[in-house]
Design brief:
3 strands; 6 helices; alpha+beta; single chain
Length: about 120
């Protein structure tokens, strides 16, 4: 992929912005869902900059790319393993959202909604 093609590509521009935010200390860990065709570019870029990452297959065409601090990625690997994000328990979903730096109050609301839904399904 040429530099010009990369400059014009929306998903890779978003990826590069996430890398910038990580390097500036704005975020400690990022989750980005992307097409598999971008995986090589993204992982080579992360490797060349010494940024730890974890790739999780979502479908035949998509991946989840987690990257950032190694201790955060280790926690993610232990927490979710190879399960899809939509297969996580409300507690695991809450932990993941918090690790990703999402708004804590919104994560609390999300947790309560997911937990109440699971309780209704169980009864």
């Amino acid at each position: 992929m040429s530099a010009e093609a990369i400059a014009m590509n929306g998903p890779l521009r978003v990826f590069m912005n996430h890398v910038y935010e990580y390097k500036k200390g704005i975020r400690r860990m990022i989750l980005m869902t992307m097409l598999k065709r971008y995986q090589t570019f993204a992982t080579e870029r992360l490797s060349s900059q010494g940024i730890a990452f974890h790739v999780q297959e979502v479908s035949k065409d998509k991946i989840n790319l987690y990257f950032g601090r190694e201790e955060c990625l280790k926690a993610v690997r232990l927490l979710i393993g190879n399960r899809a994000v939509n297969e996580l328990s409300p507690e695991e979903d809450f932990i993941l959202g918090t690790l990703l730096g999402y708004d804590v109050c919104q994560e609390c609301d999300r947790y309560c909604t997911l937990k109440e839904k699971k309780q209704k399904e169980a009864s």
